[in-house]
Amino acid sequence: MSTWQEPLDRLTERVTRGLARATSRRSALARLGTWLVGAAGLPLLPVARGYAALPDDATIAGDAGDPTSCDYWRNCAIDGFLCACCGGTASACPPGTEMSPITWIGTCRNPADGNDYVVSYNDCCGSTLCLRCQCLRTEGEKPPYVLWKSNSLLWCFGTKSRAVHCSVSVVLGIAK
Amino acid sequence: MLALLALLVARDGAAFAPDVNYALHCQGCHLADGRATPGLVPALDGSIGRFMRVREGRDYLVRLPNVAATQLDDADTAALLNWLLHHFAASELPADFQPYTAAEIAAGRRQPMVDVEGARRNVLRLLGEDPG
Questions:
Q1: Interchain CB distance below 8 Å, A118 and B23
Q2: Does residue B108 sit within a domain?
Q3: CB contact (8 A) between residue B17 and residue A47
Q4: Number of domains in chain B
Q5: Residues of A (66-85) whose Cβ lies below 8 Å from B
Q6: Does the annotation count A35 as an active-site position?
Q7: Angle at the Cα of A175 (from B107 to A65), degrees rounded to 5?
Q8: Chain B residues 39-68 with CB within 8 Å of chain A
């Protein structure tokens, strides 16, 4: 479906390269801050700490912004209609739809605390397209090179219906 | 400045721990708990370890397109597979299991697997299972 395009690979790209450090919209000062945060985490890397599961993604320190905006930090690689505009929330499907277990996953930086979070973009399936708050964020994406990471796919896999309604941005934890 | 440079290199080289790489590169389809999605995605949980019992199974895991072509270097890919095997299937690993090395990943990912289904059936046969 052509209206569901793009954003995928930018996540992986950002992740493997130390992320948003390279994006032009960030100032050198912000980048420096990022490195310092990363430095604090480096000694922990050899230990399989990974992303500590967050009990409730609404409790993230400093979480701020408008979940119905494409610019909301969690939506940094979303392609679809925001469930927050469609009767659901940033992390919950609207009633009558089923969340796809198979998802597109990447990271977004929370400007409030400077952390990179692992974010799962789950499609909510079983109803016609919501058509409200359509977002498409693809910074850094290179689909011609990494076809299988395209977020333009419909992700209603493993659900009773393949009809996509909207998409949520579920924070899974901190990427470190 | 040197310190900053070193830090930059370090972050570019090994950005994340294996479980984070699992989330970013595998979990979208294999799910957080590695369970199967019937008809779409085979189980990792309680399943993947037995592939280590035969040489062909060990090679199969490395040469799978979704493993071989992942955007991780050889060392991170080896660490990810080793983490995954212990996380999802530690009890199935043979007693003489040797962890994957970066060199093994480097060699395996340079041998494209054309017939994935056929390779899987062959491994299952070697394991004494019905390849379906």
A1: yes
A2: yes
A3: yes
A4: 1
A5: none
A6: no
A7: 140
A8: 40-41, 66
Over the range A1-11, which residues count as b (16 or more CB within 10 Å of their CB) and which as e? eeebbbbbbbb
More confident residue, A138 or A8: A138
Q: What is the pTM of this model?
A: 0.72
Half-sphere exposure at residue A57, Cβ-oriented, CA atoms within 13 angstroms = 19
Decide if B69 touches A, using CB distance below 8 A.
yes
Check if B32 contacts A (Cβ < 8 Å).
Answer: yes
Question: For A12-23, how does the pLDDT look when each residue is reduced to its tens digit (9 = 90+)?
Answer: 555 545 544 444
Taking each helix axis as running N to C, give the angle between helix A28-41 and helix B2-13, from 0 to 180 degrees, rounded to the nearest 10.
70
Q: Which residues pair with A122 in a beta bridge?
A: A168
| Residue B122 host element (H or E) | helix B116-126
* ipTM of the shown complex: 0.74
Q: Collect all residues of chain A within an 8 Å Cβ-Cβ radius of residue B83.
A: 48
Is A73 catalytic? The answer is: no
pLDDT, residue A5, reads: 41
Q: A9-174: CATH homologous superfamily?
A: Methylamine/Aralkylamine dehydrogenase light chain (2.60.30.10)
C-alpha–C-alpha distance, residues A10 and A104, integer Å: 12
